[in-house]
Amino acid sequence: MSKSGVLESERMGAAFAMLRSRDLMWTPAVNQYMRGERPKLNDLMAWNADGTRMPWRMHSEYLERLYLRNELATGTFTVNGTRVDLARIQLPMFVVGTETDHVAPWRSAYKIRGLTRSADYTFLLTSGGHNAGIVSGPVHPKRRHRLLTWKNAATARRWKKLPGAMCAAEGLRHLT
What we know:
Layout: E1 6-7, H1 9-19, H2 21-34, H3 43-49, E2 54-55, H4 56-68, H5 71-74, E3 78-79, E4 82-83, E5 93-98, H6 106-110, H7 112-115, E6 121-126, H8 132-135, E7 145-149, H9 156-161, H10 164-170, E8 173-174
Helix pairs in contact: 1-2
C-alpha cells in the first residue's frame, strides 16, 4: 500500500468481508461451491461490487487517529494544525444508524449527540447493515425505521428494546 499510494478496492472489500465473515464469505462460499446454488442478483450486490481505491495516507490516518486513538471523540483530532471541536457544532443534525452495521455500529453513531451541541437533533435507526440499511427505503417489506428527536430522547439501549406501542408512548415514531 505504501508503494502504490493507495489501498486497492479489492483489499478494502476483503477487509470489510472479514468483519462479517460468516455472512459475507463463508455462507456464500458454502451455498455456491458446496451446494451449487447461485446467488440471486440484486441491486445491493452490484453496489457492493463497485469498489473504490482509498489514498494510503487517508486510510492510514483514518485507522490510526480516528479508530485506534479515537481522536475525534476525545477532542484531540487536528486538521492542518487546527483542533476539530465537535462541541462547537450547533447546526441541525440528522444522524443515521443501522442495526447490524459492521463498520459503524449504531450505538457509536448515536453517541455523536453527546459530543455536539445541536438543539435540533434527529436520529434514524434502520434495520439492515452498513449498505442495506441505507439503500433500502421505508417501503421495503423487510425493513424497519425508527425516528427519534432530541426533545424526547431515551437512552440508546432502552430505545432499541422498546416495542412499537411503547415507542408511541415515548414519542418515538416507527416509520414502518
